[in-house]
Design goal:
Blueprint (H helix, E strand, L loop, with lengths): L7 H14 L13 H5 L24 E5 H5 L6 H8 L3 E3 L14 E3 L7 E5 L2 E2 L26 E7 L4 H4 L6 E7 L4 E11 L6 E12 L3 E12 L9 H7 L5 H8 L10 E16 L2 E17 L8 E4 L5 E4 L20 E2 L4 E2 L8 H4 L7 E19 L3 E19 L14 E21 L7 E17 L3 H4 L23 E17 L4 E12 L3 E13 L4 E12 L3 H5 L2 E6 L9 E7 L4 H4 L9 E12 L5 E18 L3 E2 L2 H9 L10 E26 L2 E19 L6 H9 L4 E11 L2 E10 L2 E6 L5 E5 L2 E11 L4 E8 L12 H4 L17 E9 L1
Parallel strand pairs: 4-7, 26-30
Antiparallel strand pairs: 1-6, 2-3, 4-5, 6-7, 8-9, 8-38, 9-10, 10-11, 11-12, 12-17, 13-14, 15-16, 17-18, 18-19, 19-20, 20-21, 21-22, 22-23, 23-24, 24-27, 25-26, 27-28, 28-30, 29-30, 30-31, 31-32, 32-33, 33-36, 34-35, 36-37, 37-38
Helix pairs in contact: 6-7
Length: 850
């Protein structure tokens, strides 16, 4: 069970200690990068999407964004997902309060595809995915970028094009490749921020150092510590106010839950992250290298409030209504919660009184709000040796391992079926993702009759991944002696021993990648990859890309490729049970209990489930690169991505009594209590069409220098085919319309002497909020929103600088929810917004580099 998080007094102490610990030696770089350093990104040699050594961003056959470390600094949030979103408009990340594990592992996507349609690499090596398998949004199992320290990276390369033929599974939408810092020097910072509501105080402390190892090696270390309080953009529930008005003990019990009985917003979170990167030349032509990471994260959030009394009074609209108490407080005809609390018979069985004095009101008189938490441990380790043979062949042999383990827990909850024997805190079990990779890569310069040698990349890969479920403690899943009451820990049942286990898959791959400069103006790339998977068999994919330079100022580029994404063992075998309040007015029950079943199980087969197959894609893109004059560039890229057999969550099937009996016969855990079941399925095909625009200009402006970047994305996804039984209306809307079609960011940097200023506008188009997820479905169209960020930096000396910033300077919030049943729960704003909705954030940052 996690300990309580660090309090604000500890944060201040840490900041003071860090500030006095800063050395004041000579500086090698300032906290705020110069304009020249920022504009160098366009001329940056890239390593993603090509195996040719001298390719730059504007020379690439496909669109690539280079995000510098200083770009990441200019975003207040500690979450690497949000930092990338501010720099890459086609990258979206959502915030899902009260949504189980999605509260902590946020779903992020490139070009409105699934979160796991983007391959994540570090220094060109595949990074392991999270143990969290999303059962609340798009059904993905992706990498948790929030566990990576942003100060470990020299730059981030975002390839916006299909690349499965080059890198393998997952790279349908593109690739994010984090390039580790390998330079000497030390960089430290302390940042503190707070939201306009007076909550969400957050402390960030970072330290990174690089050292030379002899004449030919390096050792780099980076660490970040983050401590963030929760935020609340909701209001008190009307029912909680009415319960408190009943007098004692209810009033003090309601107040003891918190300022409000349920918070909506950012979770309380504490994170420690470390990355180490080292390399050393064994000979003039051979280098030994290694890098690895470790992260420890604890998060706490509120689940839905369970009211203790039935009360009558004004609802969120001011109308007089009767609010029902939570079903756990109901009293049966014998005057107790359970028929088994008094002696009795059902005509077949006779029983003596069990736990006759158990009364939920004596434990939680004001109701209760389960506090849901997760403890995450994440590590990765890569070791390899690389070198050259002669003047034409480069080689690289590496092995890697990674693990992500999430332990879930609950506080302030109860297992009603255990009665007075129930604890109020529960260990709910764990999930773990393990991955191992072995890679052997070659690059050969093949001299032919052409003026330039053909760059030939080829290699082999072996990969294994394993998904584990560890059962929770007995009380978290048990059906107790009061068996007519709700079993398991209320809010988030623990993993049942019957669902625990370990499942794996493995695959082997071979690839070849040609990069041919046919003329000084025409470059062509051809790639092919063959893979053999234990879960489903073989797949072969290819890619053709080209760039033609019409003039020195105008170039055309385009690509066509096929790709795939393999189902993970987690998606294939996950079993999960969740409890949600019933918001369907046509059904009398207060709680829905929904089960996630393995798609190839006997139980899922009752509803059309079967073993998962790979998703397959065809990606077309065409773009133009303009360099009209010195300091200016414009790239415009259109794309179309067809994805067949997409993996997602099926519809929720509401069980009949007969189906429930079939699940009981199939030994599905808690089957007697289930109201709905679902599973992963290959049930639909989509087509995504879009346009990316990136324009840059740098130049002189009066006595200073200015840089302007405008980046926009338009994205439209439609169904080409779907199974209406497996993918109902609500699921179809969730996949297509919960992310804006249009996003646009405009930023301007101005440097003058020791001063540097940044203004950034972030625009998000309309999107759809699924207000009611059961029949009858209710959708609300959320209007476009624009946020303004302002940042100022002053360089006190060569080594010390201070940054003051305000994000969402205009204190904008999105429109409030219209559906009164949602507002009665204390929620003011839609969940799942593709941006933070906490109001204005002020922050200050002090940095030292030496």
């Amino acid at each position: 069970m996690a300990a309580s998080l660090v309090h604000s007094s500890s944060r201040v102490g840490l900041a003071i200690v860090a500030a006095f610990a800063w050395p004041h030696g000579s500086a090698q770089a300032a906290e705020g990068a110069s304009l020249e350093e920022r504009t160098a990104g366009l001329e940056q040699i890239i390593v993603t999407g090509t195996r040719r050594a001298e390719r730059t961003v504007l020379e690439s056959n496909v669109p690539i964004d280079v995000v510098s470390n200083d770009d990441l600094r200019r975003t207040a949030t500690p979450d690497l997902n949000s930092k990338l979103q501010a720099a890459v408009p086609s990258y979206n990340v959502r915030r899902l309060p009260t949504s189980d594990g999605s509260i902590f592992v946020r779903p992020a996507s490139l070009r409105n595809l699934s979160p796991d349609h983007t391959l994540v690499m570090v220094n060109g090596k595949r990074f392991h995915r999270s143990a969290f398998v999303d059962v609340t949004a798009r059904g993905a199992q992706a990498v948790n970028l929030a566990l990576l320290p942003a100060n470990a990276f020299k730059r981030t390369e975002v390839l916006r094009d299909g690349a499965a033929a080059q890198y393998g599974s997952d790279a349908i939408a593109g690739v994010i490749n984090f390039i580790l810092n390998d330079e000497p020097g030390t960089d430290t910072y302390v940042q503190f921020g707070e939201y306009s509501g007076g909550d969400g105080q957050n402390l960030q402390v970072g330290w990174s150092s690089g050292f030379e190892l002899g004449d030919s090696g390096h050792l780099n270390f980076a660490a970040e510590y983050i401590d963030a309080d929760a935020t609340n953009n909701g209001r008190q529930r009307p029912q909680a106010e009415l319960i408190a008005a009943q007098g004692e003990p209810y009033a003090s019990a309601v107040r003891s839950i918190g300022k409000v009985v349920q918070r909506y917003g950012l979770p309380e979170q504490e994170t420690k992250k470390v990355f180490v990167n080292a390399g050393f030349n064994l000979t003039e032509s051979t280098q030994l290298y290694t890098f690895g990471s470790f992260a420890d994260d604890t998060g706490v959030a509120d689940f839905n409030y369970r009211p203790s009394l039935t009360v009558t009074g004004p609802n969120a609209d001011g109308n007089i209504v009767t609010f029902a108490r939570n079903g756990g407080y109901n009293i049966k005809a014998n005057g107790r919660h359970s028929i088994y609390q008094t002696a009795g018979t059902d005509g077949v069985n006779t029983w003596a009184a069990i736990d006759p004095d158990f009364n939920l009101l004596s434990i939680y008189p004001g109701g209760f709000t389960p506090r849901f938490g997760s403890d995450t441990r994440d590590y990765s380790f890569v070791a390899g040796v690389k070198g050259t043979l002669g003047s034409k062949l480069d080689w690289d042999l590496s092995a890697s391992t990674g693990s992500n383990r999430i332990e879930y827990w609950l506080k302030e909850s109860i297992n009603l079926s255990l009665g007075s024997l129930s604890p109020t805190e529960f260990d709910n079990g764990a999930r773990e993702q393990r991955e191992q990779d072995v890679n052997l890569d070659f690059v050969y310069q093949w001299q032919t009759a052409l003026a330039n040698p053909i760059n030939v990349g080829f290699g082999l890969e072996y990969r294994r991944e394993e998904f584990r479920i560890t059962a929770g403690e007995y009380a978290s899943w048990a059906v107790g002696p009061l068996r007519d009451l709700s079993p398991a820990s209320n809010g988030f049942p623990g993993a049942h021993p019957a669902t625990a286990g370990a499942w794996d898959s493995y695959n082997t791959a071979a690839y070849v990648d040609f990069d041919v400069k046919l003329t000084d103006r025409l470059n062509v790339g051809v790639a092919g990859r063959f893979e053999d998977y234990s879960l489903f068999g073989t797949t072969t994919n290819g890619k053709l890309a080209a760039r033609f330079e019409l003039t020195d100022a105008v170039s055309l580029r385009g690509a066509v490729s096929t790709g795939f994404r393999a189902p993970t063992p987690g998606q294939q075998y996950l079993q999960n049970v969740a409890q949600n309040p019933n918001v369907n007015p046509l059904v009398a029950r207060s709680v829905d209990i929904r089960a996630q079943l393995p798609s190839n199980s006997q139980a899922a087969a009752l509803f059309g489930g079967k073993a998962l197959t790979p998703e397959e894609s065809v990606n077309l893109s065409f773009g133009v690169v303009l360099q009209p004059f010195s300091g200016a560039s414009v790239t415009l890229d259109a794309y179309r991505i067809d994805v067949d057999d997409r993996i997602g969550l099926s519809s929720d099937f509401e069980l009949t009594a007969a189906q429930r009996q079939q699940l009981i016969a199939a030994d599905v855990p808690l089957a007697s209590e289930l109201t709905h079941v679902r599973f992963y399925t290959n049930s639909f095909d989509t087509r995504t069409t879009g346009l990316d625009l990136v324009a840059n200009w740098q130049g002189a402006a009066g006595p200073g220098a200015i840089g302007v970047t405008w980046a926009s994305n338009y994205n439209y996804t439609e169904y080409r085919h779907y199974d209406p039984v497996l993918l109902d209306e609500q699921a179809r809307v969730t996949f297509l319309k919960t992310i804006p079609r249009f996003t646009s960011h405009l930023s301007a940097d101005y440097s003058l002497g020791k001063w540097q200023f940044t203004a950034r506008g972030r625009h998000f188009g309309e999107w759809t909020y699924v207000a009611n997820t059961t029949v009858p479905y209710v959708y609300e169209q959320i209007g476009a929103e624009t946020f303004l960020d302002l940042i100022g930096n002053y360089q006190f000396s060569d080594s010390v600088s201070i940054t003051l910033g305000v994000e969402n300077a205009l204190d904008n919030y999105i429109q409030e929810v219209g559906l009164v049943t949602i507002r009665n729960n204390g929620r003011r704003y839609p969940g799942g917004a593709p941006y933070e909705n906490e109001g204005r954030q002020l922050y200050a940052r002090v940095g030292v580099r030496f």
